[in-house]
Design a protein that fits this description.
mainly beta, Elongation Factor Tu (Ef-tu), domain 3
Length: 169
């Protein structure tokens, strides 16, 4: 499991006073209201930035970082990802998982036959869909619904599934 989780991508500057538009990569954009700092992706690792102010504009979050008071201070961060530590991540409910924790899980059917490995999670609105990479076959798409997902053990790296009729055609 990763120690840091991506919450957004700094897409562009906003105005001339050091604000940045953030494209959120988290389900809950309101989480930005509670954040005090984030980790910025750099060539040398990660740099901690303190959040001074947060507001919302259309699908973006507008963030002002402490010490970044002009467009020149913030422009160099354009296109970079921002992260939070696992301790500062939102609390998950029962049967909820971070996408980063699902990627790479081995997927087994009810008979413990390995079907493949989770390579991606598609967020469709109604429910997520797990993309399972298989050797020599096309990817398997499994909806994240109780009828299909029997057990998820991120510590063991295994997801056990029931394939509904028609999923493996």
């Amino acid at each position: 499991m990763e120690d840091i989780l991506q919450v957004g991508i700094l897409s562009s500057t906003h105005g001339v006073h050091g604000e940045m538009k953030v494209f959120p990569t988290t389900d809950d954009v309101n989480r930005f209201k509670k954040l005090k700092n984030v980790l910025l992706e750099t060539q040398d690792g990660h740099k901690e930035l303190e959040i001074e102010r947060v507001r919302f504009f259309k699908q973006f979050v507008i963030i002002k970082f402490k010490g970044c008071d002009s467009i020149n201070d913030i422009e160099k961060y354009k296109g970079k990802s921002i992260f939070v530590t696992r301790e500062n991540a939102v609390r998950l409910g029962k049967d909820e998982y971070f996408i980063a924790d699902l990627i790479g899980l081995a997927v087994k059917d009810e008979d413990d036959v390995i079907l493949g490995e989770i390579r991606d999670v598609l967020e469709t609105g109604a429910n997520d869909v797990y993309v399972v990479k298989r050797d020599g076959k096309k990817d398997l798409l499994i909806p994240a619904i109780k009828q299909c997902i029997l057990d998820v053990d991120t510590a063991a790296g295994i997801m056990k599934v029931h394939l509904l009729e028609g999923l493996d055609d």
